[in-house]
Each structure stands twice: as structure tokens, then as C-alpha cells.
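Predict structure. Chain length: 276.
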Amino acid sequence: MATTVACGAATPLPEQDGPRVTANLGGSAGSGSGKEGATKSGRLARAGREQKTLDTGCAPEMAPIDQRTGRFCIDRWEASLVDVLPTGEERAHSPFYPVATGAAVRAVSRPNVFPQGYISAVEAQQACTRASKRLCKPSEWRKACLGPSTLVYGYANRAEPKRCNDHGRSPILATFGSQAFAPSRHAWDFMNTPSLNQLDGTLAKTGDHPGCTNGYGVYDMVGNLHEWVADPSGTFYGGYYQDTKQHGEGCTYTTNAHAASYHDYSTGFRCCADAK
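Prediction complete.
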């Protein structure tokens, strides 16, 4: 545990805005020229999304999972965020900064982006709700992670080195060294520093480990970021980029030592929804 520092009673940093980039939420233009081509492309894209939802009962970015109580949907990739401005405009939220007090954010699930760390279960639930989704029930998350073959790591019953992002280094030690453990300063004081997940050998982009999946087509449920589930007392699953075994192996990894309001650099999430 001396070199695996990822959870505890964090001291929140002062509220600050991270780097912001304008989100392209409208998709790319398709065939045709000018406004007519863009309009046609938009109609085709919407039709494709609607057909996908009609076929599976799930949004295109979600995987359908069948269980005894019925079908549910789960995000294929760990969630990132967009800020929802008072005007209704949306812009990308830096995944390396906590959510500012009172900010409105919406969850999105996309490949090839850094997922959101530094988030609490309370904030994650609110972000899922704004996306017309919800945090996954513990049983839903576990079933999706184990896959249709019910395997401890989703892809197998034994871990395969580097198949998932479970072999990273400690960003706390890399950044602060021994001072993180100085008697006058508790290690948890550093847990929400924005630079931590920006170091090489730490957080990976969604889907960056293509073998870290299962027959359901969900990615990174083991490693990369801890993932909050819908437990009012506070529980996250799956481990993160430095540890997927300390609190149970792979999909059985469970941490319930923190309140739902807790967050640090290692805490992330994904959303679920009822199939339509």
C-alpha cells in the first residue's frame, strides 16, 4: 500500500477551471455540398442512431446486456464530461480537473479520449441523469464486466499482463516524492492535483487497450479508473491503472471505504440505462 496511493480522505483543492476546448457535438459533414449536404448527413446520422436504438433498445454508444430481470444498457467506454452552460451551450470539460461546485455537467461515452477522473459518485450520478442515463447498479456493473462467459477479468479468469491499463506508476510518488508522506502533510492532500493523470504511464485514453474487453463489447472495466456504482454509501469497482487486485481481482475488485461525495484522481464512472 506504500506505493499504491489512490484513495482516502481527500482535501479538495480550491475551485479552478481547467483547460477548455470547444466540443464538436454535431458530428462531421457528410456527402453533398454546403447546407444541403450537411442537412442530408444529419438526417442519415439521426436515422442510423434511431435504428440502432430500435434494434437493441440502447443508444449507439451503449452495449445491450440481458439478465433475468430484463435488458439494460451500459456505456461501452468510461465517461468523459461536457460542461452545460446557462445558455444551453455545451463545451468539453477537462478530464484532469474536478467538477466545480455548482457546475452542470453531462456524461458522454466516447472512444479515444481521456476519461474523467477526480469525480464523486454524487457528481457522476448527476452527470448520468443529464444524459438521460443513471449510474449502474452494482449487479449490472458486475455482470457487464464479467461478460457473457462470466470471467473474472472479462477476457479470462487470470490476468494477462498489460492487456488492460493495470500496470501504471504512482503519480503521487512521481510528482511529490517523499514529501507526500511527510508528517506535516498527509498524502491525501495531493489526491486531486490536476497534473497526476497527465503523467506518462498513468491514465490511458478510452479503448486504448483493445484487448481489455469481453463478449459484450465494453472496454476498460478492469483498470484505468475506478468506477463508481449506484450505492448511496459509496462504492467503486474494477481497480485503476496501478492496481486491479488489492481489493479483489478484476471484476470483483471493490472499494467501499469512501463516502459518495469523495473523489480523487483515480475515481471515474460510466453510465447505465434501462433498455427501451
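Summary: The chain has one domain: 35-274.
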